[in-house]
């Protein structure tokens, strides 16, 4: 399986592949770099989520990890996180079991008494499944956006190479490839 194409700055930073100046220029010319000039919260977010969007987007722009193309992904992350928190709050209010009252009758149908026992709450089980799905959505979106520690550890943000002083030969004859 082929590896995904890496930005030329990352290749140069790693120093494992030697490219000519022409190859470097060609790759830089053909690389797609999305703009980050319109990173604004979508209109469908609530005011509270818009504030959260701006906060997270500013942090991601500061480290060059978000572009205009990521706006909806961040909005979906915030919506799924909000829904996850609501479902979690509802789960904390409920009990995982419910009490069931069962009427005990004789053979003639006469009521002898009432017996209670506990059973798993169907509503609680449904909320638990919903919470799990929302958690997975949040985790996937957070990972895609670089919002988790592990996803940031996988990112290698290219830094410009440090300028080293030119030797006498380089000053006299120019760069030698």
Can you walk through the features of this model?
This protein folds into two domains: about 1-35, no CATH class; about 40-160, no CATH class. The longest helix is centred in the C-terminal third of the chain and has 24 residues, at about 120-145. Helix content is about 50%, strand content about 10%. The two termini are about 30 Å apart. By secondary structure, the chain is mainly alpha-helical. The mean pLDDT is about 85. The chain is built from seven helices and two strands, in the order ααααββααα. Helix 3 (about 45-60) crosses helix 4 (about 70-95) and helix 4 packs antiparallel against helix 5 (about 120-145).
- Radius of gyration (CA) equals 29 Å
Q: Helix share of residues? A: 40-55%
Oligomer: single chain
Q: Strands across the major sheet, in which order?
A: 1-2
Approximate shape? elongated
Order of helices and strands: HHHHEEHHH
The computed structural class is mainly alpha
Total number of domains: 2
| Count of runs of 4 or more consecutive helical residues | 7
Number of strands: 2
Largest β sheet strand count, sense and barrel closure:
2 strands, antiparallel
Poorly predicted ranges (pLDDT <50, ≥5 residues)?
none
Give average pLDDT, whole number: 83
Distance between the ends:
32 Å
Beta-strand share of residues: 5-15%
């Amino acid at each position: 399986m082929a590896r995904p194409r890496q930005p030329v700055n990352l290749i140069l930073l790693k120093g494992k592949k030697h490219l000519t100046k022409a190859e470097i220029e060609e790759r830089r010319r053909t690389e797609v770099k999305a703009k980050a000039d319109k990173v604004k919260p979508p209109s469908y977010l609530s005011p509270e989520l818009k504030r959260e969007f701006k906060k997270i987007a500013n942090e991601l722009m500061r480290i060059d990890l978000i572009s205009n193309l990521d706006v909806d992904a961040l909005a979906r992350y915030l919506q799924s996180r909000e829904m996850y928190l609501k479902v979690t709050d509802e789960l904390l209010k409920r009990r995982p079991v419910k009490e069931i009252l069962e009427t005990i009758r004789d053979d003639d149908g006469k009521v002898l008494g009432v017996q209670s026992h506990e059973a798993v709450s169907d509503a609680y089980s449904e909320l638990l499944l919903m919470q799990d799905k929302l958690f997975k959505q949040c985790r996937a979106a957070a990972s895609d956006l670089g919002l988790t520690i592990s996803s940031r550890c996988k990112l290698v943000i290219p830094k410009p190479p440090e300028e080293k002083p030119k030797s006498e030969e380089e000053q006299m004859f120019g760069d030698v490839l």
